[in-house]
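Bug: token stream looks shifted between consecutive jobs. Job 1:
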Amino acid sequence: MATKTFLHVGLPKSGTTHLQAVLVANKARLAKRSRLLFPGRVWGDQVKAVRDVRGQQGHQTSSDDTGAWQAMADEITAWDGDALISMEWLGAASSEQAARIVETLSPSRVEVIVTARDLGRTIPAGWQEFLQNGETWAWAEFVRAVSSENPRGTPAGNAFWGQQDLSKLLATWGDVIPANQMHVVTVPHPGVPAGELWTRFSSVLGIDGALFDASGRGSNESLGRESAELMRRLNELSRARQVDWDTYEEMFKRALAKRGLSKRKHLESPPRRLPADLEGWTWARTAEQVRAIQASGAQVVGDLRELDPVFAAAEDDEPTSPEGVLDAALEGLVAVAQDRGAELQRLRARTTELQQRLRTPRQPPPSHEAALQDLVRTVGRRAMRLVRRAR
């Protein structure tokens, strides 16, 4: 059984994609050098396991998820070092789900890691991520919902705070594990040397982060303003035309947004930022988060002042340029065509390889296999004679 099992439970948009990419790239080295297991054949196995243990339903659910959590727990049980699961959906676990997770990992000591980022960057980043997952909320509509007196009463506000309610997350996990097994890692402000978040994260794991390559590892790139508006309009049309999720995810989320539009943000207007008129509300919510962290007794790695929000210099209500949206659409079409073209080339190469295999004469089976085949044929002939006699 793993001595410790670390659960990196989010929050979303707090550098999780980067950290997960570093862990995936160094999976074998982590196991060999630091006896740290990052379980599953691929990271997607952790996604399936968390869906399974949380009983999540929705367009991303698959029947393959059943039993995935127990399979991962069994893998951790068989390991003789420490283990780490990193999946943001754990942050929204209910008290019952959290208790079950800790129970299934027992007697391994469960420690929870939360990465936290300032609301000034998290709210715009969260809005963009929702747009890349099919939502249609305009920026002004989203901000009003998130900052309303009853945000959980609105679809947008409920979606955001369902992921980002740090106070609730700390209370939920604090009910099932001791405070000294809780860790909050703050995300540095821009300008801090690259790799600082990984350095902080690895220190919680008790490993030397410098031993592992964290350079250039994945990040969930943001979109420029025109590309974000393009995705919003595209989502409206996709819903009207009833585009299924698998098609949307591969063509629009991954090919268009992630692999296409994200590369042109330097050509567009800057991404949205919180308007100055939300300064008082944002500082109040930030203060609530800081008090929750302090009250939880969790170990803080970094500086709580890094949760201080940053605001736009002026009102951020300028309309998006139609010409800019058109440019984004044209470049997006080219990007999707190139992406599909590369996939088509891979499929053609694979098809050619299979055709060549079919044309190659098959080697005669070894003598024992030939004898077995003769026996099968003989038994078959005798069985047919018996059937005919019976008739």
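Job 2, same session, no restart:
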Amino acid sequence: MTIEISEDELALRTLVDFGDHPSGFLALNEGTERFTAAGLRGFIAYRRSGRYLIQFGGPFAPAEDRMPLLARFIDLAATERRKVVAIQLQRADAERYAEVGFTVNQVGATYALDLDGFTLRGTRFMRLRNKMSRARRSGLRVIETTTEECTALTSIDKRWLRSKGRHVKEIEFLVGQVGGPMQAHRRLFVGLLEGEPVAYISYSPVYGERPGWLHDLSRRLPDVAPGTMETINAAAIEAFRAAGTRWLHFGFTPFTGLDPALEVSGASPMVGRFIRLLAAHGAAVYPAKSQVSYKEKWGDLLVLPEYLAFYGRPRIGGIWQILRTSKSL
């Protein structure tokens, strides 16, 4: 008897076997295409935007197939008369891309918390504990559930988005999703008040050198008590540690953790200046400072650089296409 396996499940197996990327599960987002090539294992996750093929992460493939797969992807772009730009490359991929003709710059950093021996005791976390106590006094209760059992998430999403202003769009591509064919592999923690959902955090699995969970999509009603999201995350941490999970990843934040010493050979001074300009004045484009502040409140984090790469000559328009594709603009 032959058992057919869906393309999504095949891609997931590839991530499990070869995906050493903290945000790699986002490659399975609905709306993201996966490039494959005959005779090569693995795939490249990407989206089309204007004159660009925007690649997410490096090739998710065994080591011997990674660069041949990238070469075929570049051929696809040439056939379509498009340019390749890659976002969220890990350091090893950034160095390899630079060797084959890409111009590579650091664009931000990814953050991870080692849960081995993690505790919120001590004066360092007193302020955080007080916020969580305030949320619990408001009646907040946290449960782990599924989207099938929690149909109120769409209402939370809509009210959360409205609270951001009528011109704000739902960011996608570089963040995860709730629902869809891969939902069974995520974990969902929901905050309840009087039995009604008021906030949630979705966690995606992380494979590779530091396996664990990615603190991914988070939403809340605008009028919930301060400390609500922290209380939900603390409950999730307890569940992860009970299962022996070592790492909680907080994921990528653009325009943060920038360091000239982390640039790879051949980095573009022009792109570097533009990224630093966004880091200094780009709060309207992306709330990087508030994101990092939330992440750092959980303790000492492992901070690793992530990179932006243009095949050939870099163009500022490529960065704007990434921001448009992710709906950050």
